């Protein structure tokens, strides 16, 4: 019998800067978009010697080698993938033990055979039956973002890999862009780890796709930002 794919997905990001401190946030959602776990770090501040010695590699070191493993390593849940809006997080894919994908700004609605992508999802009964609970099998209706939401998304999400900034240690050629409905992401062309073994690009997409029936790829990052702010006020 074929092993069913994981029913949880992670969203990983960071806020702040090296001067004031970088705070990482990690939110795990189930297939219907409900929170299962949330973790955040204390502000990570490099000292002056680290700033000098790491130079342009400092952000990738802080995000990909300190924050990402610390947060993802806290969960004992089996994750389908981890999505991030921060290219600097991509310095740590092999150490996370789970495929790491980059989320972009939303694209136009994709149509297949003349029908909207949402309709194609709804008709895919076998996939829905395999991976989705009853209350998630109906595709959510796409609601266009408000001008404020759209402007906010463009501040924190890049349009494509071509527009992503250079990050020392990150080879964007190892990721490939794909579109699922309005959700645009870059997925590893191939992923290999000691815990998961080898996962192909197609399998990475198949692991992520069911979540986009009920979850907007951009929206969870706003939840993380607000939760981190609340944690900092309470702490």
**Overall geometry:** globular
Low-confidence blocks of residues: 110-145, 147-154
State mean pLDDT (0 to 100 scale): 82
CATH topology: archaeoglobus fulgidus dsm 4304 fold
Structural class: alpha+beta
Contiguous helical run count: 8
Tell me the strand percentage band: 15-25%
What is the terminal separation in angstroms?
48 Å
Biggest sheet, spatial arrangement of strands: 3-2-1-4-5-9-8
Provide the descriptors you would attach to this structure in a database record.
archaeoglobus fulgidus dsm 4304 fold; globular; 31% helix; single chain; alpha+beta; 8 helices
Describe this structure in words.
The protein is of the alpha+beta class and 235 residues long. It has a single domain, classed as archaeoglobus fulgidus dsm 4304 fold. Strand 6 and strand 7 form a beta hairpin. The chain is globular and about 45 Å long. The protein starts with 7 loop residues before the first strand and ends with a helix.
Topology record:
Blueprint (H helix, E strand, L loop, with lengths): L7 E10 L3 E10 L4 E6 L7 H7 L3 H15 L9 E3 L8 H4 L3 E4 L7 E2 L2 E2 H7 L1 H7 L15 H10 L18 E6 L2 E6 L1 E4 L3 E4 H8 L10 H16 L1
Parallel strand pairs: 1-4, 4-5
Antiparallel strand pairs: 1-2, 2-3, 5-9, 6-7, 8-9, 10-11
């Amino acid at each position: 019998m074929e092993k069913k794919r994981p029913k949880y997905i992670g969203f990983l990001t960071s806020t702040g800067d090296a001067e004031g401190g970088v705070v990482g946030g990690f939110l795990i959602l189930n297939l219907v978009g409900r929170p299962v776990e949330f973790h955040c770090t204390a502000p990570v501040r490099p000292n002056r010697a680290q700033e000098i010695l790491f130079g342009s590699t400092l952000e990738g070191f802080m995000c990909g080698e300190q924050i990402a493993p610390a947060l993802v390593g806290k969960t004992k849940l089996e994750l389908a993938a981890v999505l991030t809006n921060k290219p600097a997080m991509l310095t740590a894919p092999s150490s996370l033990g789970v495929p790491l994908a980059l989320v972009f700004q939303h694209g136009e609605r994709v149509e297949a055979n003349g029908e909207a992508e949402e309709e194609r999802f709804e008709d895919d009964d076998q996939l829905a039956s395999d991976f989705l609970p009853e209350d998630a099998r109906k595709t959510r209706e796409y609601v266009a973002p408000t001008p404020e939401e759209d402007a906010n998304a463009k501040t924190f999400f890049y349009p494509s890999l071509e527009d992503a900034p250079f990050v020392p240690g990150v080879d964007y050629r190892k990721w490939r862009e794909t579109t699922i409905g309005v959700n645009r992401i870059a997925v590893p062309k191939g992923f290999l780890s000691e815990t998961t073994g080898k996962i192909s690009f197609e399998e990475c997409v198949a692991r992520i796709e069911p979540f986009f029936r009920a979850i907007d790829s951009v929206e969870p990052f706003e939840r993380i930002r607000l939760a981190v702010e609340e944690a900092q006020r309470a702490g």
